[in-house]
Amino acid sequence: DIVRDFAADRVRGAKTDIDKAVRLFYAVRDEIRYDPYVLRFEAECFRASYTLSQKAGWCVQKGVLMTAVSRSAGLSARVGYADV
């Protein structure tokens, strides 16, 4: 699975859960381009695997991806949304 492979590659060698979380945060932040102009609302566009395969997404999509890779790495994670 693309999400599990992404997470496993990024946390390889991490000694603590904090190290895993930091590595995953930087991977999603730096390797997945933020693009607010890809606003599509089909259900498949909100899958972590979709965002990962596109290598781009907006904040909700990147949040879903971060949650999925965190869970895949054995970390407790959930999404949280807010109006800003």
Note the main attributes of this structure:
mainly alpha; two-stranded parallel ribbon; 4 helices; 2 strands; globular
Describe the structure.
With 84 residues, this protein is mainly alpha-helical. 55% of the residues lie in helices and 5% in strands. The chain contains four helices and two strands; from the N terminus they run ααβαβα. It has helices at 2-11, 17-31, 48-54, 59-72, and strands at residues 33-34, 56-57. Strands 1-2 form a two-stranded parallel ribbon. The longest helix has 15 residues, at 17-31. The radius of gyration is 12 Å and the shape is globular. It starts with a helix and ends in a 12-residue tail after the last helix. The model has no long low-confidence stretch (mean pLDDT 95).
**Estimated structural class:** mainly alpha
Largest sheet: 2 strands, parallel
What's the total count of β strands? 2
pLDDT averaged residue by residue: 95
The H/E string reads HHEHEH
Strand order of the largest sheet: 1-2
Strand content: under 5%
Number of helices: 4
N-to-C span: 34 Å
Low-pLDDT parts are none
- Indicate the overall shape: globular
What Rg, in angstroms, do the CA atoms define? 12 Å
The share of residues in helices is 40-55%
